[in-house]
Specification:
Number of helices: 5
Helix content: over 70%
Radius of gyration: 18 Å
Number of strands: 0
Distance between the termini: 36 Å
Mean pLDDT: 81
Largest sheet: none
Low-confidence stretches: none
Length: 102
């Protein structure tokens, strides 16, 4: 499900960055819209990723299996936090421009 959120995030970031009427009106390649809308997109991406971490465990019934593992609750929380952070880092990394051969 995280892949779906990342794809939606990337499509919206591209859409808000390269709106056709803005590019043609400005007559310049400018990334200012990207930096304006990007924090607002993260306001929806981060909660969408993080709220599903524990709710999916409960919904699928795997919370019982997780709680019977030989780890503390603190370790489970840190693991979930790092997973959400890695997913957000992946979304940010996919936003970086590709520098191909020139």
């Amino acid at each position: 499900m995280a892949y779906v959120f990342i794809v939606i995030f990337l499509v919206l970031a591209a859409w808000f960055t390269f709106l056709p009427r803005r590019i043609f009106r400005a007559r310049s390649a400018d990334l200012e819209p990207f930096f304006i809308f990007h924090p607002w997109l993260y306001l929806f991406l981060i909660p969408a990723i993080s709220m599903r971490l524990w709710s999916e465990e409960r919904r699928s019934g795997s919370i019982e299996l997780l709680m019977t593992q030989p780890i503390t609750l603190w370790q489970a929380v840190v693991g979930k936090f790092l997973a959400a952070w890695a997913c957000a880092a992946l979304a940010l990394a996919l936003d970086f421009p590709r520098s191909g051969s020139r």
